[in-house]
UniProtKB/TrEMBL annotation:
Record has Transmembrane helix as a keyword: no
SUPFAM superfamilies reported in the protein's UniProt record: DNA breaking-rejoining enzymes
Key words, A-Z: DNA integration, DNA recombination
Record flagged with keyword Transmembrane: no
CDD domains to which the protein is assigned, alphabetical: INT_ICEBs1_C_like
Positions in coiled-coil regions: none
Pfam families in the record: Phage_integrase
Identification of the protein by name: Site-specific integrase
Domain Tyr recombinase: from-to ranges: 29-206
Segment forming the signal sequence: none
PROSITE patterns listed in its UniProt record: TYR_RECOMBINASE
Gene3D superfamilies associated with the record: Intergrase catalytic core
Species for this entry: Duganella dendranthematis
Length: 206
């Protein structure tokens, strides 16, 4: 997990605001990634199944509606990839994503792979959905239930409140801080906008 959760460069927030401008406007908040220390605290204070889901979110950048809809049939633990191809909204899993480019195959980096390996014992033989609400031992019924659990973990961890969607921005920030190719970041996050390539030329000193 440590290789993917490094401290962010302050300039990455500028990059993220250009990388994800439409998303930031849609959800009506500023891009505000979690730090490595905050991520560690969140993971440490979450119960096992919740920890696996939150770690997966931090290390893949998938939208909350996508990771709650993830099925084992979309996971390839041989090639270390996951197909993002459906979303769960208002208790209904749809075989579609938020955008056409959002339907994609992503790489499982170390933290995401470990989250799935750890999750197998809980849900692999319990149906196709990967992540379950451990309280009901069934799928997460709606986003409010996920948000309630997320907020509870943040409070327990002593981490300043931000919505779960910020895990997506945190993932992008982590890759940018690591010097990963911007087009790769776009592909992993399901963005089609090729103008992001110009961000490579931004200065790295403040």
């Amino acid at each position: 997990m440590n290789d993917n959760l490094i401290a962010a460069n302050p300039l990455d927030r500028v990059k993220l605001n250009r990388l994800l401008p439409k998303e930031a406007k849609r959800v009506d908040y500023e891009v505000d990634p979690f730090s490595a220390a905050e991520i560690k605290a969140i993971i440490a204070n979450a119960k096992p199944q919740e920890r696996n889901m939150f770690l997966f979110a931090f290390t893949t950048g998938v939208r909350p509606t996508a990771h709650t809809a993830l099925k084992w049939s979309s996971v390839d633990l041989v090639e270390n990839t996951v197909r993002v191809e459906r979303a769960r909204v208002v208790r209904i899993t749809r075989d579609e994503t938020k955008t056409d480019s959002g339907r994609r195959t992503i790489d499982l980096r170390r933290g995401a792979l470990q989250a799935l390996l750890d999750q197998r014992q809980y849900t692999l033989l319990e149906g196709d959905l990967v992540f379950h609400d451990p309280f009901h031992n069934a799928d997460w019924q709606d986003s409010s239930r996920v948000s309630t659990k997320w907020n509870s973990v943040l409070k327990k961890a002593g981490v300043r409140h931000r919505v779960l969607y910020q895990t997506r921005h945190t993932f992008a920030s982590t890759l940018l801080s690591s010097g990963v190719n911007l087009l790769y970041v776009a592909k992993q996050m399901g963005h089609k906008d090729t103008t992001m390539v110009h961000l490579r030329k931004m200065a790295r000193t403040g």
